[in-house]
């Protein structure tokens, strides 16, 4: 069946998927697979398939923001994906988690608008514990800071005149902020799929983000490489636990 927005056929989509905001990052991840095929590049959604250590997977970009990303997650799950890992970037709330660190999101604060149209207020956006643990263990095997905790999902990247209460989220214990994990966790829970997310920290979340935001430094580039390795390792482990890979 053709997925109308991603423009991919469900027959070509395996059960495991890595998703990320940037189509260029999708290409970079797909470059690490064997037998890579680009299936479609429709709007911001670029879809590749390939194999890593015997596990077939899709790599798909979902663009910036929850509403568009949710379309991608919905269609992937309709196409047969049952395990989704987001490989993203985020701003940090902690001096102990500087640029270049990795964060694994166990759950997301739903400050965005998309999930309010899907589930009632108070319903939690939670990652799948098996996926989250696989990601955390794989990330911990790479060199550098790795943290695990609650992340915040926002809609507004740049501030308007209404201040985003980053300080309160930080005081409440959240460790990083990005834009799509709440959508990923709610859509996955609703549709019976499992999901996790890993993030490369690109700086501190700040009221004047427009002046300091730079996701193109060497430290962030290295962290993106580390998170990609962690996501690939986590998928191989999950596939083994699922009995989908027989080789050691
Ligand atoms: O690097 P990605 O995966 O796009 O993630 C983060 O970067 C974008 C903002 O620049 C948002 O999509 C945010 O969630
Ligand atoms: O949403 C995002 C993504 C990266 N860095 C941030 O500060 N926010």
UniProtKB/TrEMBL annotation:
Enzyme Commission identifier(s): 2.4.2.3
Pfam families reported for this sequence: PNP_UDP_1
Catalyzed reactions: uridine + phosphate = alpha-D-ribose 1-phosphate + uracil
Nucleoside phosphorylase domain sequence ranges: 15-230
Top-level taxon in the UniProt lineage: Bacteria
InterPro entries (alphabetical): Nucleoside_phosphorylase_d, Nucleoside_phosphorylase_sf
EC class name: transferase
PANTHER family per record: FI09636P-RELATED (PTHR43691:SF11), URIDINE PHOSPHORYLASE (PTHR43691)
Protein name as annotated: Uridine phosphorylase
Organism of origin: Paenibacillus macquariensis
């Amino acid at each position: 069946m053709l997925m109308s927005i991603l423009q991919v056929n469900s027959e070509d989509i395996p059960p495991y998927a890595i998703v990320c905001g940037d189509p260029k990052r999708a290409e970079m991840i797909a470059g690490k697979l064997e037998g890579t095929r680009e299936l479609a590049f429709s709007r911001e959604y670029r879809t590749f398939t390939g194999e890593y250590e015997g596990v077939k997977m899709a790599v798909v970009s979902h663009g910036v923001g929850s509403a568009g990303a949710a379309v991608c997650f919905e269609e992937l799950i309709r196409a047969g994906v049952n395990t989704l890992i987001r490989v993203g970037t985020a701003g940090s709330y902690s001096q102990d988690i500087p640029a270049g660190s990795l964060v694994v999101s166990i759950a997301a604060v739903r400050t965005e608008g998309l999930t309010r149209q899907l589930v009632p207020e108070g319903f939690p956006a939670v990652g799948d514990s098996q996926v989250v643990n696989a990601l955390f263990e794989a990330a911990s095997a790479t060199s550098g800071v790795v943290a695990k905790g609650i992340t915040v999902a926002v809609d507004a990247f740049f501030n308007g005149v209404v201040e985003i209460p980053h300080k309160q989220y930080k005081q409440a214990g959240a460790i990083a902020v990005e834009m799509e994990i709440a959508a990923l966790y709610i859509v996955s829970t609703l549709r019976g799929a499992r999901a996790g997310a890993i993030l490369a920290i690109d700086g501190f979340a700040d009221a004047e983000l427009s002046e300091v935001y730079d996701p193109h430094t060497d430290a962030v580039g290295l962290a993106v490489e580390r998170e990609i390795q962690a996501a690939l390792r986590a998928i191989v482990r999950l596939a083994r636990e699922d009995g989908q890979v027989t080789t050691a």
